[in-house]
Amino acid sequence: MPWQNNGDGDRPNPWGNGPRRGGGGGEPPNFDEYIRKGQDQLRKAMPGGKGGPLLIVAALILLYLYWGFYQVKTNEQAVVLRFGEWVASSSPGPHFHFPPFEQVEIRGVTDENQVSIGSRVTESRRSGRQSFARPDESLMLTQDENIVDVRFNVVWRINDLGNYLFKLQDPDGTIKSVAESAMREMIGQNRITPIITTARGQIEQSVKELIQTTLDEYQAGVDVLRVQIIESEAPEEVKDAFLDVQRAEADQQRFQNEATKYRNEVIPQAQGQAEQMTQQAEAYRAQVVARAQGEAARFMSVYNEYILAKDVTKKRIYLETMEQILAGMDKIVVDGKAGSGVVPYLPLEQLNKKSGGE
């Protein structure tokens, strides 16, 4: 394991951290000065002012205690290594270890870390901050067999320092590989149009959950805070063609919407007309049936009267029928047996019409 840096500017040492001090300065502690001051204080405390070897032993004990003491802040975690083996983890607060047999590794666990997939950012004094594309990471295959260029960041932090340091050989590289694999899986389950338009938020959430599940299986000791898609678009070489396809798909959708609107207008109108025709047919049927039933009832009533008095009924039917037939005719029938004194023909109907016209 690398030597621990206590974060105060002191040089790392292979035995862990001494107590943290608020002052600056990168110089190591002056142990001779500490021993001399300790001896002076012990001499003053002992009768006769003489301590001899006892003073040296006491000073060495104090020095060892000082050497083995370390402080873990509230935003940190620590692991204790004994001959390079992880034997314990330390929560925030004061702790003690046994140097030089044990070492202490302290890391901040609330700091956010970020890994970028599909691009790299470099900084230099001459060119400043620049971003470089990584097509080998960003080009991915969609469900509809298109290529999409996806660049994204994964923000994470440590939640278990021991697992983070010792469960994985290369924690940062593992997080990057898992993130790229998860994004490729989600992209392969979606079509290109929603990927670059409306489905980015859903994809980010799904990728975050998949990365977290995979890292938990590895016992990586990491919490994935968020996944941020920086850019998702068609590759530069086919961007113009893809835009043409998008416009065609938009026109197709517009035509479909117009056809649906027309269908929604025509179908109810046709259904109304069909219902009206059905109702008219039902009314006509009811009218015809009622008329037929009436005719049948009248016929049956006449027939019943005919059965009771055949001669009278025949004569009445004959007279009624002749009345209906001759009612609209302009002829006058004169009985030939009436004698020679009767006027054979008198157009009474024409006279009536003429007198009425005058």
From TrEMBL:
Top-level taxon of the source organism: Bacteria
Segments for region (Disordered): 1-32
Coiled-coil regions listed in the entry: 245-287
Keywords tagged on the record: Coiled coil, Hydrolase, Membrane, Protease, Transmembrane, Transmembrane helix
Record localization: Membrane
SUPFAM superfamilies: Band 7/SPFH domain
Signal peptide: none
Record-linked PANTHER family: MODULATOR OF FTSH PROTEASE HFLK, STOMATIN-LIKE PROTEIN 2, MITOCHONDRIAL
Protein name (Swiss-Prot/TrEMBL): Protein HflK
Gene: hflK
